[in-house]
Every structure is written in structure tokens, then in C-alpha cells.
Amino acid sequence: MHPVTKDAPSDPRDWTEEEVRARILGLKSRLGRDLLVLAHHYQRDAVVAVADAVGDSLRLAQQAALATARHIVFCGVHFMAETADILTGPGQSVILPELRAGCSMADMATPDALEWAWQRLTAVETGRVVPVTYINSAATLKAFVARHGGTVCTSSNARKILEWAFTQGEKVFFFPDEHLGRVTAYELGVPLEDMLVWDRDRDLGGHDPEAVRRARVYLWDGFCVVHQMFDVEDIAFWRQKEPGIRVIVHPECPFDLIRAADAHGSTEYLARAVDQAPPGSKWAVGTEVNLVSRLAARNPDKLVVSLSPHQAICANMYRTRPLSVLRVLEGLAAGRVENRIRVPEAVAGEARQALSRMLSLS
Ligand code: 13P
Ligand code: SF4
């Protein structure tokens, strides 16, 4: 049993972190195997502390696909909970503790804008184009790629997925993250001049038909506001201040930054690189600050710093507080499923095909 302070203030907002945590743990033991709490690496420490599993987008999608619990509380953002709902069975519910936790990058590609772009692109004589959506996208976009013979990728399997896509067609339409698409295609040998940034607000992405015909990779002009904060000058700063420091960054960062860094990879990759490094090693990490601070705290024998002097925080991930988790657990304990994320079956059926393809290629 986890003790709950008897004389706790009546307004939950006045409860201490320990009080909230004790209540969450108490409800978790009550709900037992009916409950699985998943958390993304960018969640705040107090949320990560009550999760059953923590991971990157791919790992969490895999966990959801394997889950047997009736209720999955997903501490992350909306597209992640949608993905989990698509991958779980009809008797399972996926709950997002804070419904306003979206992803600004995912919002940069709407189904209408994508349909328009696709119609205009395929009206030009381009050869076979394979659409690939980053998992940071709405379920409707995942359904779209399934309809057009494409698939989904995450930051940890993007290379394998693009390799596969180039076996299916000569060209790839990658959305919504321009940066992940560019660095992955480049590392597969596609020269930068064969890639074209697709301006989502302009006809043919702002290009003439000949340029569209020539290109091999079309990159939707979406980006992550958090990963835009890092600068090549930050790398120079740390290399000068801490000789021998290793600079590792997330592939949502801009291309020149990724090229200047020592390595890049998904949040899972970044965490593993630091955790498994020898004592005394030094790391400047270009990703969301909650993960970087946690890595620094659990690796006191290493120097771990954020690459940026700015607070590179994902405001959407940060919306989820321990109290948000507590509220949905209280609902479950009282028989109420609150904040459920449900993708309509007409969309989920197609999106599932694209996600299953991704999981089997991962
Ligand atoms: P990962 O797949 O690396 O966890 O990234 C998800 C994300 O949203 C990063 O901004
Ligand atoms: Fe979206 Fe960027 Fe936040 Fe990831 S860090 S969830 S891409 S806004």
C-alpha cells in the first residue's frame, strides 16, 4: 500500500508531488493488469516516474500493439494516442490524460492540403511516387499513405522505411517533417539537388512542372518548433568549451546542424548513447530539455548538457502533469473512461495497414 497523507488539502492543486504520486500508485495497484501507463521520453520526470514503460514513438507503438491491458493511459501527444488506439483491439481503450496535448508539426499537414498536393503532383508525369508519412501525423494521413501504397516511419526506422519505399517506386513524397526526410534521403545517397521542398500553400508546392518531374524526393515544409531551436553555433560553443564532447541530435533538427553533429538518432537512440557511455565522457544533446535533464541526473559520472542555451521544451508534452494522470485513473477506478482517443474504424482500418507494414519493416 502507498500511504496517502490523511490531512491533505482538499484542493488537489495544493497537494504535494509526493501526495499525487502516492495516489497514482495506489490507483495503479487497484487497477492492476487492467491498466498500462506509457510515457514518451519528453514527459516530465514526475510523469515518467509513474509509467510502466518509457520510450520513443516506435517503442511505444510496439508496446501498444503488444498490450493486453484493458486501458492504456498514454502520456504523450495526440498522434501517439491515435496510433496506440489503431494498434489495440476493440476491447481496449486508449486514454490521453491531457486532450490539448497535440503536436504542432503534425498539424502542419492537414488531409485537405495533402489531397490537393497529391492530386497536383500525380497530374504531372513523375513516375511512381510512394508517400511516406512520419508517425507525427494525424490518423487520416496514415490512412492516406495506405491507400496510395505507402507507409509510416518514425525517427528510428526512417532509413529502413525509405529504403523500402525506393523498392516500390522511383520517387518518395515525405511528410510532414522536411528535416527528417532530407537527412534520411541524403544518407541513402539522394543528392540535395534531387530533393524539392513542397510549399504546402502553393500550387505544385511552388515549383514548375519540369522541376517536379526532375526531383526524386518531395519534402513537405513541416518542422518541429522545438528542434528548430538548435544552432550550428551551439555546437562550436560546446566543442570549444569542452574539448572531446560528443554532440548528438534528433533528426528533426535542421540538416546543417545534423551534419555538424557527431551523430543523430531518435530519442531512444540519444538516451541509450548517453546511458551506455563510459564514465567521464561528455555529451551535448540536441533534443527536448526534459529528456536531457533526466539523462544528466541519472548519469552523474558524465557531463550531459543541453546543446541549446534556450529552454528547448515541448509545450505539448509538458501539458501532462501527474494530476492529469491522477484524474483519468480516478475515473477508471470509478468505472468511467475519460479522455478516450478513438479513431473511427473507416480511418483506423486503413491506417492500421500502413502501421502494420511499418512495424513489420522495423
Ligand atoms: P521519437 O520518435 O524520437 O521519440 O520522436 C518523437 C517526437 O515527437 C520528437 O519530437
Ligand atoms: Fe511535436 Fe516537436 Fe513536440 Fe515532438 S517535440 S511532439 S515533433 S512539437
Please tell me about this protein's structure.
With 362 residues, the protein is of the alpha/beta class. The chain folds into three domains: 121 residues, 3-Layer(aba) Sandwich (Rossmann fold); 114 residues, NadA-like (Rossmann fold); 88 residues, 3-Layer(aba) Sandwich (Rossmann fold). Helices cover 43% and strands 15% of the residues. It is built from 16 helices and 13 strands. The strands form three sheets. It has a five-stranded parallel beta sheet, with helices on both faces. Helix 2 links the parallel strand 1 and strand 2. Helix 1 packs parallel to helix 15, helix 3 packs parallel to helix 4 and helix 4 packs across helix 16. It is globular, with a radius of gyration of 21 Å. The mean pLDDT is 96. The structure holds 1,3-dihydroxyacetonephosphate and iron/sulfur cluster (SF4). Iron/sulfur cluster (SF4) binds next to helix 14.
Throw out a few tags for this protein.
four-stranded parallel beta sheet, Rossmann fold, binds 1,3-dihydroxyacetonephosphate, single chain, binds iron/sulfur cluster, alpha/beta, globular, 16 helices, 362 residues, five-stranded parallel beta sheet, 3 domains
Order of helices and strands: HEHEHEHEHEHEHEHEHEHEHEHEHEHHH
Distance between the amino and carboxyl termini: 40 Å
Overall shape: globular
Number of helices: 16
Gyration radius over CA: 21 Å
CATH architecture of the largest domain: 3-Layer(aba) Sandwich
User: How many domains in all?
Assistant: 3
Query: Unreliable stretches, pLDDT < 50, 5 or more residues?
Result: none
Query: Which small-molecule ligands are present, each listed once?
Result: 1,3-dihydroxyacetonephosphate, iron/sulfur cluster
What's the CATH C level of the largest domain?
Answer: Alpha Beta
Helix share of residues?
Answer: 40-55%
